[in-house]
What does this fold into?
Amino acid sequence: MLIKYATSEEAAIINEIMQVAFSEYKNPPSSALKETTAEVKNALERGEHSLIGFDQDIPVAMVRFKLTNKELYFYRLSVLPTYQRKGLAKQLLKELESYARNHGVTQLVCKVRMTASKNILLYQSIGYEMFEKVTVRKANGVEISVVHMKKQIQLGKVRG
It folds into this structure.
């Protein structure tokens, strides 16, 4: 998979991958399903970052992220269903680790629905740990249990 850093001009691609990948989270619906291309573009123009993964010239995966001086927070990690379980998410996460190292950041953080056990297992398989469990109340009153996960990485030479 070829991974490229996205620009705001690729917001439609990012949003399309996210909409398809997040369509499985309907009960209760993920807020990702309500995001528009304009909102994604606006976020990218205001400092959010994104990676897009390509199979040949077909966009098949993406992740969005923000960087602070302390951590890299990523969200909306999305892989098209026909490409899932092929290691693409791990490739995106490895690229995020490299990006964090290059910016002097040693911690990556994400939030995951407690009901998304396959996602939790994916993150745990590459060194992420749960550090906080919270209940998020949506505007419609629905409550969702969420776990915060993190991974510490070393600065310096990347080991292959």
Notes: Residues 88-102 form the longest helix (15 residues). The chain has four helices and seven strands. The radius of gyration is 15 Å.
